[in-house]
Amino acid sequence: MKELEYPFDVSYLMKNKKKIKRELLQKQGLIEKNIAILGGSTTSEIKNMLELFLLNYGIKPQFYESEYNKFYEDAMFGNDELDNFNPDIIYIHTTNRNIIQWPNIYDDKNTIREKLETEYKKFETIWTKLFSKFSATIIQNNFEYPYYRLLGNKDASDSHGRTNFVTKLNQKFYDYAENTKNFFINDINYISASYGLDKWANQFYWHMYKYAMEVPAIPYLSFNIANIIKSIYGKNKKAFVLDLDNTLWGGIVGDDGVENLAIGPEVPSGQVYTEFQNYLKEYKNLGILLNVNSKNEYENAIAGLNHPAGTLKPDDFIIIKANWNPKNLNIKDIAEELNLGADSFVFVDDNPAERQICRNYIEGISIPEIDTPENYIQIIDKNAYFEMTNFSTEDLKKNEMYKDNAKRSQMMATFENYEDYLLSLKMKAQIKTFDPIYLERISQLSNKSNQFNLTTKRYSLADIEAVAQDDNYIKIYGKLEDIFGDNGVISVVIGNIKNNDELHIDLWIMSCRVLKRNMEFAMMDTLVKKAKERNIKTIYGYYYPTLKNKMVKDFYNLQGFEEISCDDEGNKIYKLDISSYTNKNNVIEVEE
Question: Which pairs from 43-51 meet CB under 8 Å and 24+ separation?
């Protein structure tokens, strides 16, 4: 929903939140998550705004909200309501209003260090307690700077200053976050600075309502929390689709010529576009896919991308569509060629008419309302389309993996027989029980896979860690490599053992990068083998249809399962007597 992307109309959101919520609840495929808010100040409006942003991301939250300033009591001593709620996410909303042990001018350095450690230990004890009690992910605010500086500029550098104290306390939080899984910082220090600290700390809202920031700032805070949560559950975007003229450079390459484009240090406007290209290049280095969608002659587009002052070159892009087709059709073609849903893309175009056409015709795509090139980076960045919570070495290799896929497609065109083509790839798979080194990637894959996902269950890293330790599960991952390269971890199966001799498949996913490569048959062969080792007699499979997973609606039939039930919504249950199963993989060499 456009109204829930930056920049916000805060007044509109506040006045129309009930109407917006009703509209968002009509979305299909919402995943339900339990979110506990433990507040050090009033949090009711934070919860309301957070709900809107999460619904917009496809997450339907159920909330537990602590009483006013009862974050410590709820965390340390608990209560039946919170215990029974069993949260997936715990958000601790504390601010500098909750710091008790401030330094004063008479304290020596040892006293100040003790106060700092006391404040930090209070929170570390809370986190330890919550982790021991719940298999939940914790999101913790850091601290915003004080709204006054008793020592002036020296408040930042002197150990007696509150600004200095907050800086050191924040660093302790960051050190904990860097070394702790399933723990993330909600950076209100940055948000308050970006919003304006004087406005953020509006004293009226504290003394009247006990809100630690002014109410108009709440959508910015809630949006930031929502971005962390949507990243945890794989709701990030995966790729850019970029216009060229007046988007990556100033001017129109076909009319002005390459030599007259505004890019580079010679003119101020050229510097702006260079900075924007540098920004996009950094995203490419993080594994975000770059693509071009431009109304241009292909030769002119390539010439513009080869401008000597440009940072982005043709080789930085996965797909370049430079033609005179409608841009919405080009985007659909790019999505099909990459095997990604349209909701995986961020389309950046300086032309408002093109933006609106694509917004009307492509469901789920994000299209930032950019205005002048000086603001391109700010608008895209504050929308946090690619919020980083966890990323793996495989993410950093993603561009190369997609380019390797293009080579495979070219090679496939030279074969008349598809099985001969598969054999020519000389594929080797490693299929094993969950390994701690891959748990983060497995969690990531479970949240990103939509097309080859039979039950669409989503697992946080904490969930995957719990499954990995539970002997009541058979859990395997698959890696695949061939003559063109290593695809990394691309498939996961989780089966729950019940009644001693039944295996119920909770999750079966596979990356779209390896579709039609017979990896699903290799995974099935290994799953059956491991089931037999556990004396399993019957495997049950489940298919829950969504708008995106229709491609696997007949998956279990192809594996030899028998359909035993189907309800009015198309949810199906399958059964396999493994004594009758015969191996189906004949093109992949498997290491177990």
Answer: 43/93, 45/211, 45/215, 45/218, 46/93, 46/218, 46/221, 46/222, 46/225, 48/17, 49/13, 49/17, 49/218, 49/219, 49/221, 49/222, 49/223, 50/222, 50/225, 50/226, 51/21
Same domain, 350 and 291: yes
Residues 166 and 259 in one domain: no
Q: Same domain, yes or no, for 185 and 256? A: no
Which of 562, 583, 579, 571 has its CA nearest to residue 501?
579
Q: What is the CATH number of the domain that holds 107?
A: 3.40.50.1110
Domain presence at residue 265: yes
Residue 399, in any domain of the structure: no
Q: Read off the amino acid at residue 535.
A: N
79-97: buried (b, 16+ CB within 10 Å) or exposed (e) per residue?
eeebeebebbbbbbbbbbb
The candidate with the shortest Cα–Cα distance to 289, out of 409, 382, 438, 396, is: 396
Write the pLDDT tens digit of every residue in 114-138: 999 999 999 999 999 999 999 899 9
Count of structural domains, the chain? 3
* Residue 205 belongs to a domain: yes
3-state secondary structure 381-444: HHCCCCCCCCCCHHHHCHHHHHHHHHHHHHHHCCCCCHHHHHHHCCCEEEEEECCHHHHHHHHH
Question: Of the residues 172, 206, 232, which one is the last residue of a structural domain?
Answer: 232
The answer to whether 30 touches 1, Cβ cutoff 8 Å, is: no
Q: How far is the C-alpha of 39 from the C-alpha of 222, rounded, in Å?
A: 13
265/360 same-domain check: yes
- Whether 187 and 283 map to the same domain: the answer is no
Residue 172 and residue 286 share a domain: no
Range of the domain at 563: 411-591
Q: What is the pLDDT of residue 229?
A: 97
Between the two ends of the chain, the Cα-to-Cα distance in Å is 46
Q: How far is CA 446 from each of CA 29, 368, 506, rounded to the nearest angstrom?
A: 15, 27, 11
| Distance between CA atoms of residues 35 and 90, nearest Å | 6
pLDDT tens per residue across span 442-489: 988 888 777 889 998 888 888 899 999 999 999 999 999 998 888 889
Do both 461 and 575 map to the same domain? yes
pLDDT-derived band at 268 (thresholds 50, 70, 90) equals: confident
Tell me what percent of the residues of the chain surpass a pLDDT of 70: 99
CATH number of the CATH domain containing 528: 3.40.630.30
Give the C-alpha separation, 476 to 492, whole Å: 6
Among 174, 162, 159, which Cα is nearest to 113's?
159
Cα dihedral across residues 132, 135, 523, 441: positive or negative? negative
